[in-house]
What we know:
By secondary structure, the chain is of the alpha/beta class. The protein has helices at 65-81, 102-112, 182-201, 218-228, 232-244, 250-267, 270-286, 292-321; strands at 12-14, 25-34, 46-51, 86-93, 116-132, 137-152, 158-171, 204-213.
Amino acid sequence: MRKVIKYSFSLVLILLFASCSTSRLKYTQIDLLRPAKVTFDAKIKRVLVVDDEGKRDYSKFIRDSIPYFCVASVAENLQMKSFFHSVQLAKENTKGKLKNDVTLIKSLCKKYNVDAIISLSSIGCNYDKVTNSWENYASLDMKLSTFWNVYTADKSLSKELFFTDDFSWEVSIEDLKKLPNVKDAYVDASILTGANVVERLIPSWEKQDRYFFYSKDKKMKQAMDEVVKKDWQKAISIWSKVASNKSSSAKLKYHAHNNTAIAYEILGDINKAVFHTDKAIDLYYNESISGKKEELVFEDLLQYKDFLLERKKEISLLKKQLANE
């Protein structure tokens, strides 16, 4: 297990239930751990962040500091995440030499005593100022495109990555002077880009919404009481009885299977979540279930099943990225 970091594959549930008075749909937010764009071997514990951008062809005003702020932000945010045992920022700019120089890669790894190098090989910047009198706003829109490389001295990992980050500052036309000047905006954007890059380099948390059905049915009310307590097994047991009860309507069974699928996802049992999603989908098709809330959830269910199937692959990848195998 990597230093400090302690991830769990069970989902963090934030009970922010809300419902429309007529829809009887209650939603909650879950924090979901998503895999990174790079899988670092467990032996990679110390990394070096390097500014390897070569040619600097900036026009109109000097922006040489932008790459520095970007790599410094990456180093700082990686340090705060504690995913690696140590993170250092190289003092030198390697000026585009790393990609074709194995000797230099090994030399830097030895000099800083690191296992891998994360380098910024190129950064592109552009901006646009917009004034919209009709809608009474002015904005400064900025885009940073960055190319990154990951190297190890033993050549066990070599990865090239490309990211695009967009930023916008907007004010009313009356407050036009409050827009940041372009130089300051570039500095802010480069720092924010560095933070965004880190979210892609290591596993990160993402908030997602899930919807539960709630009705006046006694059993469904009991199940939702258990949801509030986070007693998922009890809730599942109650929903299972509703789904298997011959006297339950097709619509009520549809509700129960939908809710059960979400509960199993929260428990980390993706196979059972898929099973109950399929059951809900089959009921909707075969029993001609109607209702605005049912239709709304059904549209999500089709995408939800695809997500769950992809999630199985993600969990396997996450185990490798978190060195849990």
